[in-house]
Amino acid sequence: MKRTAPEKALDTSSGAEAPSPHDPDTSPMNDATRRLVFPLDYGSLDEARAGARVVAPSVGVLKVGLELFVREGPAAIAACHDLGRDVFLDLKLHDIPETVGRAVQSAASLGVRYLTVHAHGGRAMLERAAEEAARASAPLTILAVTVLTSLDAQDLTALGLSASPAEQAERVARLAWDAGVRGFVASASEAANLRRALGPEALLVTPGIRPAGSAAGDQKRITTPAQAISSGADLLVVGRPIRDAASPLDAARAVVAEIEGALAARST
Ligand SMILES: O=c1ccn([C@@H]2O[C@H](COP(=O)(O)O)[C@@H](O)[C@H]2O)c(=O)[nH]1
Question: 197 to each of 149, 152, 178, how far by Cα in Å?
Fold first, then answer.
């Protein structure tokens, strides 16, 4: 039976995609754990390694973002591979097509599984990113960032955009889809709408996740883990509520348990 892009992306055990040469952790991971992405938003590689090691048993994907990559570069990616986790390189590329295309090649050579580009970079840039990812020797999914979860309607107005965040996210997601991109970063509050617009093949990755009672910080379009899953999100990015918890592992476990409950409810 043909599997959807999200099913393939979430399946780390099938061998349908080339197994990662960096994957020493062969322990089985349940579906809920696979869906939790933990951002290594730390100031140094040592801190990132320590933070990742603690939560790794409850996390499916490790995300390397601007803070860590600017300081530590590819060593940060290697550290995630050492823990046997897929790497999500969150650089939100936004440049001319040639520059982005070559950056996608560089990311592919590092063996990352997911790479973000800004959907607002336009169709030619998105096409080039998707083409380069398709040429990579190992699976690499381009994720188009639709509207940052730290922005609300007022912020869009200030940028000269009259659409609501949900409308703008759908508009640029459709543009990215037409350019060949199949992965999308959006608030989970837009996940149901994007799923309706793009169908089951779209991989929906949702930051701005806040378990009940945790501080929003600079995030403006937030949902709980359960709301995200019930809205059709595939991967949930949860950073500070785990990183800054008294016990990051317990916090990660609680998120996984909430995802598990919501998945069970979703399938009934
Ligand atoms: O729209 C976006 C795109 C990316 N992010 C990234 O996700 C994490 C969220 O961390 P929290 O601590 O859970 O807020 C962070 O690395 C962002 O760079 C996002 O938040 N929103």
Answer: 19, 21, 12
